[in-house]
Amino acid sequence: MIIGIDDTDSNEGMCTTYLGALMLEELQEYGTVDSLPLLVRLNPTIPYKTRGNAAVALKIKTDCPEKVVTHVISRIEELARMECEKTNPGAVFIQENDYERLKPVLMSFLEEAVKDVIEIGKAKDIISELGIASKSFKNGRGLIGALAACGAMLNPEGWDFTFEHLTYRQKERWGTPRDIDKESFFEADQETYPETWDTVDLTNRLVVCVPHSADPVLFGIRGESPEIVNKAASLIRAESVERFAVYRTNQGTDMHLLPAQSIAEIRDMHSYRLEGTVSVAPKTLEGGHVIFAVRDREGAEIDCAAFEPTKNFRALIRKLVPGDLVLLSGSVTSGTLNIEKIEIKALVPVCREENPKCPECGKHMKSAGQGQGFRCKKCGTQSLSKVRSETGRDLETGLYEVPPCARRHLAKPLAREKRQDIMLYPSR
């Protein structure tokens, strides 16, 4: 049986991955939990998400599926933050004899849930039409993520994947400040990067894998294999933990990005790769946000932003000038593309005007007076106007990313890119 669960957390606490970790242990009473659990991040722009918009799925071999269903539902009722308006849990249960029948439908549903906007009614219609066992609470929006997570479990090799080691706090510590040795996270990163990433932000000297909310997670280490994330976690010095779980995930894969051939096809609440030419020079707004515009081949324009949380990345964006060719990755909200990565494909020459040089002595001439051109006092040579000269650009073509402290769960870090023209700006 495959079990999909979503939307049990709130902004004030709880975490759906914690419920998944509990089920890994508790469902052993009813059978054997098969393979790693899945953590699936959905469309990051959905406004009614709680925090990270993640769903989980598990697979169990059991002779008593009814008891499994009853246990899962009882734990959701007990632990989900039902008092939160945005918390609307859903659970889906798929029997093995339905795997092949449901696989193409739910694989497609997974892609749509990560890249598009799905209404609750569509998930409920699929459940009803295909006879899928499910349980929903309140408006049942969690059924969307639960179905998507099941789609991922039905096709485990059909998408790029990474792993995350999630460590959970003792219950009596929930909601209190986390007791961690920050330096140990930098040591773990130094030992395991680039096979792990987003543990720390070296440039900004921040630990980024420790949440700040009241949820049960102590920290999460992301990487390329279960072995490497476990190794990094073993190097962390922190408060005692209740449990941990290693999830297979779609984090760090760019699975949310859609190719955009033109700005006309771009819609809010979606994420894109878009090529264009800088048409309006970057400007810094109140609050530190940096905004500029790009134009596509049809002449349409869209605003693009490096918001204040992207920190040092904004210094790079400020160096762009009209005419530069860029390939942008990011999510669109309120008609503005929030940059996650930028590939600078071509730079235009930048020229400046300066006084002409004397052909005799090589020194710059001085103005001879308004409307009278320029003259070298030493040699007596003259010139009618200033000259234009190309200046160097403090910028190189290549692929750049926002710092770890500003990275979205689904954004693929450059540590995973297999390219030679990668720029870690200003440095990792």
Q: What's the Cα radius of gyration?
A: 27 Å
- Terminal residue distance: 43 Å
Mean pLDDT: 94
Low-confidence runs of at least 5 consecutive residues:
none
Whole-number tally of structural domains? 4
Looking at the overall shape, the CATH architecture of the largest domain is: 2-Layer Sandwich
Provide a brief overview of the structure.
This protein is an alpha+beta fold and 428 residues long. 21% of the residues lie in helices and 31% in strands. Strands 1, 2, 3, 4, 5, 6, 7, 8, 11 and 12 form a ten-stranded mixed β-sheet that branches.
Structure, explained:
The chain contains 8 helices and 24 strands. The two termini are 43 Å apart. A hairpin with a 4-residue loop joins strand 9 (200-201) and strand 10. It has 428 residues and is α+β, with helices and mostly antiparallel strands. The longest helix has 17 residues, at 99-115. Helix 3 crosses helix 5 (142-154).
